[in-house]
Amino acid sequence: MNCFKLSKVMPAGLVFPFDFGFIPNTKGEDGDPLDIIVISEIVSFPGCCMDCRIIGAIKALQTERDGKTVRNDRFLGVPVVSQLFANIHDLEDLPEGIITQIENFFKNYNAQAGKQFQVTERVKSTAATQMIQNGS
Prior knowledge:
19% of the residues lie in helices and 29% in strands. With 136 residues, the chain is of the alpha+beta class. Strand 3 and strand 4 (69-71) form a beta hairpin. The longest helix is centred in the last third of the chain and has 17 residues, at 96-112. It is globular and about 40 Å long. 24% of the residues are buried.
């Protein structure tokens, strides 16, 4: 059966700042498909597929509860059909506050799960697209 299986729930009071998903047919160092935050006015649903333009990435190291550290980047995309974010083509086009809030969300989210999320670099759209093509 092709479906999504619930593996964990969000800590009480915590919500993703934007839709969070994965880039199909990719694999990150953690063994999962590459993660993407979809910056948009669109409210989607589990299983919804969207064509997005990649506007950048947040390179990060994630330390698991067992002490193992893996690279676990977060890509940022905007749906090509977005009207509100139609002029966003690169990370630099977003207000600094939005990027900082996204980074802080992942730090807090991981901390509540007993993990550490350390941002190592912000990457512009061209380099982020190349990372995806190279398998991150």
